Amino acid sequence: MKIILDAMGGDNAPAAVVEGAVQAVAAYDVDIVLVGREDEVRACLRECEAAENERISVVHAPDVIDMHDDPATAIREKKEASMTIALRMLASGEGDAVVSAGSTGALLSGATLIGKRIRGIRRAAMAPVLPNEKYGAVLIDCGANVECTPEYLLQFAFMGAFYSKQILGCPEPKVGLLNIGTEDTKGGELQKAAYALLQKASEDGRIRFIGNVEAREVFSGNVDVVVTDGFSGNVLLKGIEGTALFLMKLIKKSMMRTIVSKLGALLVGKELRKLKKLFDAGETGGTPMLGISKAVIKAHGSSDARAIASAVRQAKQFVESGVISEIEKHIDDMKTA
Amino acid sequence: MKIILDAMGGDNAPAAVVEGAVQAVAAYDVDIVLVGREDEVRACLRECEAAENERISVVHAPDVIDMHDDPATAIREKKEASMTIALRMLASGEGDAVVSAGSTGALLSGATLIGKRIRGIRRAAMAPVLPNEKYGAVLIDCGANVECTPEYLLQFAFMGAFYSKQILGCPEPKVGLLNIGTEDTKGGELQKAAYALLQKASEDGRIRFIGNVEAREVFSGNVDVVVTDGFSGNVLLKGIEGTALFLMKLIKKSMMRTIVSKLGALLVGKELRKLKKLFDAGETGGTPMLGISKAVIKAHGSSDARAIASAVRQAKQFVESGVISEIEKHIDDMKTA
């Protein structure tokens, strides 16, 4: 298994990406190609004492796509950027997956342009996994498609369900439509039309649709795939992140308030730190772009080495799971007519 | 000050509403009219040993609007329901505010139909306050209007800013547009057009617009009013609720894991319970419907007596703040042309 890493993507590139690559080859039995400015990348490898690591190779890319580039045109305009070259290598079969912590928009348009969508899939979607006490819940889409049609949402439902089954191990994923109430009359035109499509697919036995779900239900374990447009999904995902951070900060502060609570904090600290990992991008790794014909994983922009290594592990798992061929096999089930 | 309470609204009506009324008159120097089935309401008053309380009166309403009624038509069809009569009394000046824990949709359409919108306001909006370490952040809209125009959002911005100033005490509220990125090109057509309107109003000195804000920023204290359509706002609000509940549950569980952590839990428990109140509907009280020409406050459906009393306190504060006349006075500032 060979993973292509965009060495220049993310806030801490290339150092964190290179260090993550070194950690990943040691831990997960993968080969890695680092794509980026060769001198910088090799300097980082020397820093990690990995200049001679035979599982890591370097491909030179003179240019970098950064946050100031227009995501829609960056890939076309910067043909020699690390992300562009990484995706071209993936398309031509020089590796099994691309991992990048760079611009989400550029990676998405690049994946579509160079990696290509699976035949029959209208739009690729970002599908992070929210923690719960069961298999976790796939949230699809969470930012790739601001404006969606009911058909996109139907396809997201299927893709999310295959991901839940093949990667999270949920035997029969329950799919819910994100809405502002559970009645089938809730929401706008998009939700009402998507509801009807999902209901029909469910009646035909093609998917297991449980109806509308409210945002407060996503952690309940009663829903395995939460389907929504990229705008609401992004708002939900970032709202969750913000709430968890705010609450953890307040907890820390309130525990430091009295001598008694400080003592208590010492005693509960170990357990709480384990908990923090649940909402930690560094632990959960990257977000797959579902609907692309090759494995493309977006790592968090703020990824440290550990987060990059997690994303590599996730890329490997994604390739091995066969979720792409499952989507390809069932493309006719997602037809609307 | 006389508050009209829908005695039959909410999961725990009428007992919790009546008990809340008794608590409120004792604590907040208000008179209360309980509207509902007189025999049931009087029985509850006797339970609370408040049958002779001279600050509490009862108005009989034979009918009840429940969750099975269509929100759009319930008020028109059930003319003798407690909510309908409460709103009619408000419109005719028999009280200063209505508080109801009943159907949100019915209360909103009733408030618009009977209470009337402020002249020039296109749509009323629900505006709950999210906790932060400064004044709190007004989230407007959070469910009243699934489909919005840019003009609605502009008006929400102004109404939210007056609420933040008059009620939360924020001297110069910073208004942000909820979006999936901070660049002005982000979002769909609605966000782009609303951004332009808000930017113009800001340049004219009519409002203080700080640009797009992502959902993870709502607790930062850097934004005092978060403007969005009712769909995304509802998703965000319920996502926050769900995350806080899930996290609190996990914390409790993780603290019970070992003898050491159990002991620690005893020591930090008191401080954590204080924290829990921040996200507790019972503490924060109700949500005002901004844009209506009279004070209408929606209490949470699951309100207990304490939550009802909080909502009464909030209704009183809302009336005293003069936020409605501030909105009326500045209606020309909200013009789009």
List the helices and strands and how they pair.
The structure is a homodimer of 337-residue chains.
Chain A: E1 2-6, H1 15-28, E2 31-36, H2 38-47, E3 56-60, H3 71-77, H4 82-91, E4 97-100, H5 104-115, E5 125-126, E6 129-130, E7 137-140, H6 150-166, E8 175-178, H7 189-203, E9 209-213, E10 225-227, H8 230-255, H9 259-276, H10 281-284, E11 287-290, E12 295-298, H11 305-321, H12 323-329
Parallel strand pairs in A: 1-2, 1-4, 2-3, 4-12, 7-10, 8-9, 8-10
Antiparallel strand pairs in A: 5-11, 6-7, 11-12
Helix pairs in contact in A: 1-11, 3-5, 4-5, 6-7, 8-9
Provide a descriptive summary of the structure in words:
Two copies of one chain form a homodimer. By secondary structure, chain A is of the alpha/beta class. Chain A is 47% helix and 14% strand. The first copy, chain A, is built from twelve helices and twelve strands. Chains A and B meet through helix 8 and helix 9 of A and helix 8 and helix 9 of B.
